[in-house]
Amino acid sequence: GSYSTASSQSQQPSKLLFRQLFEKESSTYTYLLADATHPEKPALLVDPVDKTVDRDLSLVKELGLKLIYAINTHVHADHVTGSGLIKTKVPGVKSIISKASNAQADIFVETGDRICFGDLFLEVRATPGHTLGCVTYVTGEGPNQPQPRMAFTGDALLIRGCGRTDFQGGSSEQLYKSVHSQIFTLPKDTFIYPAHDYKGFTVSTVGEEMQYNPRLTKDEETFKGIMENLNLSYPKMMDVAVPANMVCGLQDVESKA
Amino acid sequence: GSYSTASSQSQQPSKLLFRQLFEKESSTYTYLLADATHPEKPALLVDPVDKTVDRDLSLVKELGLKLIYAINTHVHADHVTGSGLIKTKVPGVKSIISKASNAQADIFVETGDRICFGDLFLEVRATPGHTLGCVTYVTGEGPNQPQPRMAFTGDALLIRGCGRTDFQGGSSEQLYKSVHSQIFTLPKDTFIYPAHDYKGFTVSTVGEEMQYNPRLTKDEETFKGIMENLNLSYPKMMDVAVPANMVCGLQDVESKA
Ligand SMILES: [Fe+2]
Ligand SMILES: [Fe+2]
């Protein structure tokens, strides 16, 4: 979907250019954000997928953007990140992931850090529980920043769901605390943009998930019981995706180095 | 994707609640629009799909909306519309399609008509060529209306593509004229929301398609040549979907009547 706002403080046209992109096989959403009013139109991609890198880079080029960051919310187990491939195709792009992920990247972030692109920025919030290193990126507060805010929650909070907590340092207790303390404390009209959706939803809001999320509206004990009894199968991509994603999606290249 | 605007005329919060919804099997987008600031929160669905009616109606209910219209851009050949099913499940909902489609519905529209929901409205523009009865619904102009405008183009204009023109009264000549006279004349920042996307794009703009659509940027003769040489196979759903959609998606019910 697309999103465009007039700043709540002024009559300026929207600074944020926003595109949501879908990779069908892994049902992954990649997000393109740019400061469209900055002369260089600096842009970033959140959770790019290796298979759709060419599509994403064509769009970046057609829109006249300058891609500066390829950002991951966490080390994905279900698809290979596009960040490594993007770096080989667009010199100068920096990859970003959380310090807590222990993965390779050019820049490591933690709670409170800001990722700036033009006059816009994303705020980093640690939201561990699906994996140890999961973070949520939230658009900033202040003049020129998009209103309502937008939260890129990775697999911490999905629309009417959440990521599994049974591997990669996952913990249902931690996930419950993360969502309640770091996401549900955002303004209720904040948009939730997850890393995946399997039912065709594209967006939700904090208020909606606080009211209707079938897992996270429960008390902590009930939530832990739900997460312990999901009986999920081992992700078929995991043994390929996780090692590759620990090195920015470039497993073969790195192992030769 | 989600979309929310402050009116360009005032500091009011966004009136439009907007959700884009995806049906994976036929790669169809359904759109939910509502006037969120009206006391009744009147809402409409554009191009609902039979298989995802329950998902869509749950969302309508959770968001506290009052669904009043189920609207189709045309008689689809690739999926069965949800409008008939919606009418059986939510009494009072009226189905809408173009007069030129010759399909059944509660309300027939043609160029220049307005479909009102609360203080918001969609404008009807005839865009034949994919089918004889195709229309594009465009959000209104004026105070309170979303800015930039949004065009729901059905299969007339797709992102970097367009619908086929080889059946259902299709005509490449007509499609070329429709897109150029009815869609490319909208402001360049108008969002294009198509009925389908097969590559994971969710939105485009008039300006983008005028510059990068690989078919419609060509001259009319080249366009006609492209459309004549697509060598597409017969849509597998066509013999089921078209007769069903001519009667609002309720073929079995109607044939018993
Ligand atoms: Fe994950
Ligand atoms: Fe169609």
Given the C-alpha coordinates, what overall shape of chain A results? globular
Please provide the ordered H/E string of secondary-structure elements of chain A: EEEHEHEEEEEEHEEHHHH
Q: Can you give the mean pLDDT of chain A?
A: 93
The biggest beta sheet of chain A reads: 6 strands, mixed
The small molecules bound here are: fe (ii) ion
Which sequence of strands runs across the widest sheet of chain A? 1-2-3-4-5-6
Task: Characterize the structure shown.
- The structure is a homodimer of 257-residue chains.
- In chain A, 23% of the residues lie in helices and 24% in strands.
- With 257 residues, the first copy, chain A, is of the alpha/beta class.
- Chain A is globular and about 50 Å long.
- At the A-B interface, strand 1, helix 1 and helix 4 of A face strand 1, helix 1 and helix 4 of B.
- The structure holds fe (ii) ion (2 copies).
What's the SSE blueprint?
2 copies of one chain form a homodimer.
Chain A: E1 16-23, E2 28-35, E3 42-46, H1 53-62, E4 66-71, H2 83-89, E5 94-98, E6 107-109, E7 114-117, E8 120-126, E9 135-139, E10 150-154, H3 172-183, E11 191-194, E12 204-205, H4 206-212, H5 220-228, H6 238-246, H7 251-256
Parallel strand pairs in A: 3-4, 4-5, 5-6, 10-11
Antiparallel strand pairs in A: 1-2, 2-3, 7-8, 8-9, 9-10, 11-12
Question: Which structural traits does this protein have?
Answer:
alpha/beta; homodimer; 257 residues; disordered N terminus; globular; six-stranded mixed β-sheet
Describe, in short, the structure shown:
Chain A is built from 7 helices and 12 strands. Chain A has helices at 53-62, 83-89, 172-183, 206-212, 220-228, 238-246, 251-256; strands spanning 16-23, 28-35, 42-46, 66-71, 94-98, 107-109, 114-117, 120-126, 135-139, 150-154, 191-194, 204-205. Mean pLDDT of chain A is 93; it is low at 2-12.
